[in-house]
Input
Amino acid sequence: MIRAYKFLIRPTVGQEQQLAAMLRDHCALYNAALEERRDAYRHATKTTVRYGQQSAQLKDIRAFDSDQARWSFSSQQATLRRLDKAFAAFFRRVKSDETPDYPRFRSFKRFDTVDWPEGGDGCRWDATPHDPVTRVRLQGVGCVRVHRHRPVVGKIKTISVKREGRRWYIILTADQDQPDPLPATGSAVGTDLGIAHFLADSDGGFVPNPRHGQKGAAKLDAAQRALSQSKRGSKRRRKQVETVARLHRKVRRQRLDHAHKTALALVREHDFIAHEDLKIRNMVRTPAPKPDPDRSGTFLPNGAGAKAGLNKSINDAGWGVFLGILTAKAECAGRSVIAVDPRNTSRECPECGHTVKENRPTQETFRCVSCGHQAHADTVGAINVLRAGLARRDANQA
Output
């Protein structure tokens, strides 16, 4: 299995300048390769330029441009592969009738990562098992100190250097054996994700919604107002850009921390976990406008204002991040995770099976109109999710 490790690196002032120059030159290479593909298709009878052709030109580019020659050949190939993946995703979206989103030129401010394959030229991971002082050797930069807060297990496959604000990180992907599973608990649980409560389980427990984005909204709004009032190109605007980015990073780290802790608690306590197969991208989609048939050029109310508030709350909860982390932790721990169809999970009575929308008169209340069973609506949904998950597991095993 492949596992990623992320460590803070502590470059010197000179090394930090070299790292920034490395990002700038790789960004220029990416944009030049994109321009070559675009111009070849537009002006050369729709000629398609592929990765192999562009990679073969690197030797001549390095001989002509001394700035490109000081960096690793393997890292430049990885940058060209990144562009190739962007075009592959573009053509896949075209074939599936999705919004194509043609690959765009990258600004240096938004080009933050350089990759190396382990064993390639220009990068070497220098770590001693019991020595906390670790360094990574990068061509053109030197030996950079790494704050390795935990050991790296397995064979390293790729190494990446990433810039986040004023901090620099190194990301390793390691191929390691499947770890030993956690001891069996004999417990199974169903979960129901929501807004009022982040998570409700089939045992009647609730995980509160921390609402990190809402709590930090006041500071973020003030920072964004100050940014909008700053003159473009000024020192004050650059400082405000860093402030806004720092606030966004803080909220993202808080969501990640909450998702990791919640998923870890579920994985430790239960052998089987069932959750709703939520289509989050569809849930946060903006409502389509409704033209007024009686008046040309005007539109009828479509609830976009209320939907915008709901979309903001869904994004703030971070369901997609949590489900991805839960699946990864369950795989490492030898647990089973199954996604089930979410339709009518909060409307079906767990006692008699009667399913109508009147069973849920309010957001939190469930009251069966047939048998009179009462419970919290999210708990009912989690119970039905668990039953559907167990039925699906048994069907797969049969």
In short: The first helix runs from residue 13 to 43. The CA atoms of residues 13 and 55 lie 32 Å apart. The longest strand covers residues 155-164.
